[in-house]
Specification:
By secondary structure, the protein is an all-alpha fold. It is built from 6 helices and no strands. α4 (89-99) runs parallel beside α6.
Length: 157
Amino acid sequence: MVACLKSTDIETLTMAAPTVVQGNPDHPGVKNLLLSPVVDGDFIPDQPGNLLHNAADIDYLAGVNNMDGHLFTAQDIPSLGNKNQETSVEDVKRLLAAYTKEKGQAGLEVAFAEYSSHWGSTPSQDTIKKTAVDIGTDYIFLVPIQTAIYLHAANAM
């Protein structure tokens, strides 16, 4: 597989990647990425979380930027990319419900209380939109980075 990737020019490889799948708040597009790592038992022998013991003695830098999830989240809630269109609180809740589905209703309620704790009684559209992007960024980027850091620390010598 590595030889194949090395022999393919970057333009061909880039053009082979599908665009971000249009999603909606109930079914975020990021959950349908077609070109993502697959545990095949060979090139990727196991789930990444199970492999961190192999790199516990290697220092690395990990991080995430504010708004990294905008590209994906705006595919799920198109109004995020349009300053003239309102984003409903219900759309934000639906997106959060899709991301916290495994935690059930209680997980959704705790998460929404946390994300909306700074809103006050009448949140502005900027606040609602930024919260939706924060939710997407955290789910797609921040949580996996934090998980990797915790697993790395747990396996460090």
